[in-house]
Amino acid sequence: MLTGRYDEAFRYAHELHGNQKRKGGPIPYISHLMIVSALVLENGGTEDQAIAALPHDAAEDQGGAPTLEVVRDRFGDGVAEIVSDCTDSWPEEKQEWRPRKEAYLAKLPAKPQQSLLVSLADKTHNAEAILSDYRVLNDGVWERFNGGAVGTRWYYQSLANIFSQVMPGRLSDRLSRAVTAFSV
Fold first, then answer.
1. What are the C-alpha distances in Å from 117 to residues 53, 132, 136?
2. Residue 89 — pLDDT band, cuts 50, 70, 90?
3. Which among 55, 105, 117, 171 is least buried, having the fewest CB atoms inside 10 angstroms?
4. What residues are paired with 21 via a beta bridge?
């Protein structure tokens, strides 16, 4: 069962992301964090993994290393390590899009299983959101992504290939189905 730590993590994630919206629409960003956390729990994750899913983008989008240290202080080393493993760039040293994604993909297979589940849940929800928007906007959806159609499809296909190897199962199958559907 979830404890008060989970409630605190949700409040913290809301403090950080409460005014943000998802790319290209009116959907509150916090909904993404809630879904990622739910996917973690539905796929056998622990409370620490579900907690880490809530601020999984905090270091990347909301202050870098100092924010990660707040996560560590409030929720422990395990949660902070998962958040760090889910971070593909630090604001202090952000690379261009393609090299950043290539570096994340290269390191992904060696990440601990506890981090891989959170990352897989994140990428699965992102891919399903892209697919949902693709069905409405067609190729117009790619305008909101730095990688454009070709780069974004390459990145998500690469993620699907890696996750099918390192975390085979229902969730990686969901990711693969969504990526296949928007890669036609």
1. 9, 22, 29
2. confident
3. 105
4. 28
For 121, the 3-state DSSP assignment is helix
The type of residue at 44 is G
> How many Cα atoms are found within 13 Å in the side-chain-facing hemisphere of 55?
34
- Rounded to two decimals, the pTM is 0.95
User: What value does the mean pLDDT take over residues 11-23?
Assistant: 92
Per-residue pLDDT of 33-57, as tens digits, reads: 999 999 999 999 999 999 999 999 9
Alpha carbon distance 85, 112 (integer Å): 9
Whole-number Cα distances in Å, 139 to 15, 59, 78, 128, 183: 34, 31, 40, 15, 11
For residue 91, which amino acid is it? Answer: P
